[in-house]
Amino acid sequence: MRLDIITIFPEMFIGPFSYSIVKRAIDKGLVEIHLHNLRDYATTKHKNVDDYPFGGAAGMVLMIEPIDRCITHLKGQREYHEVIYLTPDGILLNQPLANHISTKQNLILLCGHYKGIDERVRQHLITLEVSIGDYVLSGGELAAAVLSDSLIRLIPGVLGDETSALSDSFQDNLLSPPVYTRPAVYKDWAVPDVLLSGHERKIHEWQHEQAIIRTQSRRPNLLEF
Ligand code: ADE
After folding, report:
1. Which class is 169-224 in CATH?
2. What are the tens digits of pLDDT across the range 93-111?
3. What is the pTM of this model?
4. Which of 61, 87, 93, 150 to mutate to test the pocket of ligand 1 (most atoms within 8 A of CB)?
5. Please, where in the chain does CATH 3.40.1280.10 lie?
6. CB of residue 91 inside a 6 A radius of ligand 1
7. Where are the alpha helices (DSSP H) in 53-188?
């Protein structure tokens, strides 16, 4: 997978991409991430990327020209399967959407800022709009990092067998069951006996039962399909 991320704050991605599973995936060459500073595509002397909205309203709007120049430059080098804009009014990201997007090879992620981006970008250049939740962030960068992480862990070979994405919460519309590790008793809080029994079938039954109980009590909507 190749991710090209267009942003006015490329440094914001250093943290999210420098640790754990995402870092390992990059190091193993299973994902390539390229950050593009939108200012590098500005055409004005002062490298402006935003301007006041027509009609007058509070806040600034990212201009179409630098965005178009950047996307056109990238598309001139390879084919992209989606050009994704991160925005609170996009389709809500969930596991099925992440699974679907993760099957694509080359993706452009565009991060908005301020009051948003010129609507013509959305009409003519964007193929998919994604929100990571019903709240407003200061920009699309954190959302792009969240989306990237959710995609990268699904790339074959990124997770080992024992941490396979198939056992993640949501993959089967169930939340994950509780997990425990040593010590078996801490203060007087004991791990459920069945987990120490060594009885594989009983352990699996218990885990499945717990997943259902947890889903019913916390996210019953996941069971309605
Ligand atoms: N940009 C600002 N808020 C966002 C959100 N909730 N999801 C995606 N992009 C955003």
Report:
1. mainly alpha
2. 999 999 999 999 999 999 9
3. 0.95
4. 87
5. 2-152
6. no
7. 64-75, 95-102, 119-124, 141-152
